Amino acid sequence: MGLVGPNGAGKSTLVKIMAGLLYPDSGKVYLHVNPPIGYVQEEPTFLDTTVYKNIVYIAELNDIPHSEMEPLFEKFGLSDKKDKLPSELSHGQRKRLALLRALLYKPEFLILDEPFSGLDPSVALWMKKLIQKLKKEKVTLFISSHNLPYLMPIVDDVIFINKGKMIHRYPLRREYLVKVIFQGKWPESVETEEISSNKAILKVKREKIPELMIYTSYYSEAEGSSEWYN
Q1: Residue 192 · residue 200 · CB < 8 Å
Q2: Cβ(40)–Cβ(70) under 8 Å?
Q3: Per-residue pLDDT at 206
Q4: Rounded Cα gap, residues 18 and 21, in angstroms
Q5: What distance in Å separates the CA atoms of residue 148 and residue 134, rounded to the nearest whole number?
Q6: Long-range own/partner contacts, residues 82-88 (CB < 8 A, 24 or more apart)
Q7: In which residue ranges of the chain is pLDDT below 70?
Q8: Cα–Cα distance between 170 and 218 in angstroms, integer?
Q9: Which helix H or strand E contains 170, and what residues bound it?
Q10: Residues 201 and 193: beta-carbon distance below 8 Å
């Protein structure tokens, strides 16, 4: 499930209520899931000690054997970062560490708040592939994001909210027509439905949309050049 809305719409407030970190002023949230719940904040916080000791602390609090930690360090590309402080890691590495910490519990339900925020395209694609793998492992995911193109390949339906209220909910289709503005010569390997001097319309399966976005030689995200066709 994806949760989408502009900044200030109430996405982070809702996921914090779901995770038990905030109490609602009104209304109730029901989660029909088995504990523990995994939760990754948009800006994760850690103990002021090494990466390794951060994870050891959580593992020992929950009687998780140390042997279960080592494969996760390898899986998340942090084996050579164990002796560093979290503050010495890059933004993407801190996101990986937060995910490692959340998955240490082996949760059946995982909440991700803006998992793609601040990530460069290659790390964002790594995150997408990890999330798709978790889906295959039957982990239920609830993902809050303002980046709909990255959400589209990995969620089955989306809730749009604004000012704390649900605006719309709909299931996602398999294919979309996407219009992009490009610079230079259009790659011959990418088939289009229609093309002009600097605009192209092409049919894209939703799982391929983030890959389309990394072709920065002809796609300008900064210009807000994408349009989604129903």
Answers
A1: yes
A2: no
A3: 66
A4: 8
A5: 19
A6: 82/50, 82/51, 82/52, 83/50, 83/51, 83/52, 84/50, 84/51, 85/48, 85/49, 85/50, 85/51, 86/46, 86/51, 86/54, 87/48
A7: 173-176, 183, 187, 206-230
A8: 30
A9: strand 165-171
A10: yes
Q: Is 160 helix (H, G, I), strand (E, B) or coil?
A: strand
Domains and CATH numbers, the chain: 2-171 (3.40.50.300), 175-229 (no CATH)
Instruction: Estimate to the nearest angstrom the gap between the alpha carbon of 98 and the chain centroid.
Output: 12
Q: Is the pTM for the entire model greater than 0.90?
A: no
CB distance 50 to 37 below 8 Å: no
**In whole angstroms, what is the distance from residue 127 CA to residue 99 CA?**
10
Q: Which residues sit opposite 169 in a β-bridge?
A: 159
Q: What are phi and psi of 213, to 5 degrees?
A: -70, -20
CA angle 102, 108, 114 (to 5 degrees): 50
The strand pairing partners of 197, in sequence order, are none
Cβ-in-10-Å burial (0-12, 13-18, 19+) of 150 comes to buried
Q: Please state, as a whole number, how many other Cβ atoms lie within 10 Å of the Cβ of residue 123.
A: 17
